[in-house]
Design goal:
The protein is an alpha/beta fold and 199 residues long. It contains 7 helices and 7 strands.
Length: 199
């Protein structure tokens, strides 16, 4: 059985899509073995508890209070992750840029999903910025990508899968967000399966 760890900060809808894909066989011979949240109010923690999946709350704020840097936080999280022996670590709305103190321990294993096409709208609020660009007449489409995370660059790294999402004339920001999230929930399990196969 291949082992997936998922890191979340918020609602955890992509986490749910991954768990559902494992349960349905769309991610064959795979299981979510650990969920880590860095925010106490992350609904992802509740999803983990409801499924009986080991969960860890690991906040950066405590390290800041102790005068420790993100490298110390990342090194401790790497040690925690190591206990679960993950084949893939899926960042699913994880709002923290990892340093090499974490990434060097899991080379080739860390994946991220981003609601934009490669090279466009890196960082936060990508859907909102794409919608604003559409309104200015700069673009007619956006998309979703899943990529490896080899280093500290934000929303870069070798792309595993990507999918274009057109922006329609009648779209609101909310309708575009809804369509992008629907694509994410299909694309992320597919990309994880591809990564686990080594392709």
């Amino acid at each position: 059985m291949r082992r997936i760890a998922v890191l979340v900060s918020g609602y955890g809808s992509n986490l749910q899509a991954i768990m559902d894909a494992c349960a349905s066989g769309k991610l064959p011979d795979a299981e979510v073995v650990a969920i880590v949240a860095n925010r106490k109010d992350s609904y992802g923690l509740q999803r983990a508890i409801s499924q009986g999946i080991p969960s860890v709350y690991h906040p950066l704020a405590s390290y800041r209070r102790w005068g420790l840097d993100r490298e110390a936080y990342d090194a401790d999280l790497a040690a925690i992750m190591g206990r679960y022996r993950p084949d893939v670590i899926a960042l699913a709305g994880w709002m923290h840029v990892f340093s090499m103190a974490f990434l060097a321990q899991f080379r080739g294993c860390v994946l991220n999903i981003h609601p934009a096409l490669p090279g466009t709208f890196p960082g936060t609020h990508a859907i909102e910025r794409a919608y604003q660009a559409y309104q200015r007449g700069d673009i007619t489409q956006t998309g979703v990508m899943v990529h490896h995370v080899p280093d500290e660059a934000v929303d870069e790294g070798p792309v595993i899968l990507e999918q274009v999402v057109p922006i329609h004339p009648g779209d609101t920001l909310e309708s575009l967000e809804e369509r992008i999230h629907a694509v994410e929930h299909v694309l992320y399990p597919q990309a994880i399966a591809k990564a686990l196969d080594g392709s």
